[in-house]
Amino acid sequence: MGQEHVNRVVVIGAGAVGSSYAFSLLNQSITEELVILDLNEDKAMGDAMDLNHGKVFAPHPTKTWYGQYADCKHADIVCICAGANQKPGETRLDLVKKNVGIFKGIVEHVMASGFKGIFLVATNPVDILTHATRAFSGLPKERVIGSGTILDSGRFRFLLSEYFNIAPANVHATIIGEHGDTELPVWSHAYIGGTPIRELIENHPEYSMEDLEDLFINVRDAAYHIIEKKGATYYGIAMGLSRITKAILHNENSILTVSAHLDGEYGENDIYIGVPAVINRHGIREVIELSLNAHEQQQFHHSASVLKDIISQHVQTS
Question: What is the CATH number of domain 150-314?
Answer without folding.
Answer: 3.90.110.10
